[in-house]
Design a protein that fits this description.
The chain is of the alpha+beta class. The protein contains seven helices and four strands, in the order βαββαβααααα. The longest helix has 15 residues.
């Protein structure tokens, strides 16, 4: 199995973090990698940095998002975004280096919850209705900085 940095995946991850309610996620402490030659059926995986390693190496929490090239690279752009959202949902609110499982007492990481966050991402990717479309340079800068208020998102996600 070969592994290399994935700057394109890092770019997608950073766009997602700007447009969705992942305030607890520190983009500079997440590395995105692409692997080739893996035999897994997964499209992507997230790797943690357990507390014992953090203490032993005196290093802060860190995560690695690994995309498996033979599956991930064939996906449409929307599905790549959904896949990265899914992996980001495994990061706990305290950004401790641990991972959140798919099913818990108060949460689920499944197609439905990923789709809800994908819809939030899509809403925050659209230019504002009162903004003229003729001024595209201003629209693109607004896309990157404008977020839907967190209370609306929490209500939407039933949190």
């Amino acid at each position: 199995m070969e592994v290399e940095n994935a700057p394109d995946v890092t770019k997608i991850m950073r766009q997602i973090l700007k447009r969705t309610p992942f305030e607890h996620v520190k983009a500079d402490q997440i590395t995105c990698m692409r692997s080739t030659g893996a035999t897994s059926r997964a499209y992507a995986r997230i790797w943690s940095f357990p507390k014992i390693w953090q203490k032993a190496l005196a290093h802060p929490p860190h995560y690695i998002i690994e995309v498996l090239a033979h599956h991930f690279d064939k996906l449409r752009d929307d599905d790549k975004i959904r896949t990265i959202i899914h992996e980001l949902m495994h990061i706990p609110k305290n950004f401790s280096g641990a991972l959140v499982p798919h099913h818990g007492r108060y949460h689920r990481i499944d197609r439905r919850t990923v789709e809800k966050l994908f819809q939030v991402y899509g809403v925050n990717s659209q230019p504002k209705a009162d903004q003229p479309l003729a001024d595209k340079s201003q629209a693109s800068s607004t896309k990157q900085t404008t977020k839907t208020p967190i209370n609306k998102i929490r209500n939407f996600l039933n949190l």
